[in-house]
Amino acid sequence: MSKTDPGNYFEDFRLGQVLVHATPRTVTAGDVALYTALYGPRFSLFSSDEVARASGLRAAPVDPLIAFHIVFGKTVPDISLNAVANLGYAEGLFLAPVYPGDTLM
Fold it and tell me: Nearest to residue 84, comparing CAs of 4, 3, 7?
């Protein structure tokens, strides 16, 4: 018996299936600071509240790649634990800005 869920195989999925991941993750200012320190800011929108407000946002959102890395990292046990490769991210959409304090599920 395994201590962890063995994950899904291709045959376990169906079209239109919605996956609710077991562990939500709240994005923190520390996440943003570490990401910025490691990779550098890509655009001023994500590192300046002033630029973000001038663009109609309430504050600087997190870089979408932080959200991508967190969200797709959370999917591994449910989606790709048994995969040879992760495919299909080309159709991923960022529907709303993510801010420090937001919880991703």
Answer: 7
In this structure, are residues 46 and 61 in contact, taking their beta carbons and an 8 Å threshold? yes
- Give the predicted TM-score (pTM) of the model: 0.78
List pLDDT tens digits, range 76-90: 777 777 777 777 777
What tokens does 26 get?
Answer: 């709240």
| C-alpha span between 41 and 102 (Å, rounded) | 20
Instruction: Report the distance separating Cα 93 and Cα 40, nearest Å.
Output: 23
The structural domains of the chain, with segments of one domain joined by +, span 29-82
* Helix (H/G/I), strand (E/B), else coil: 26: strand
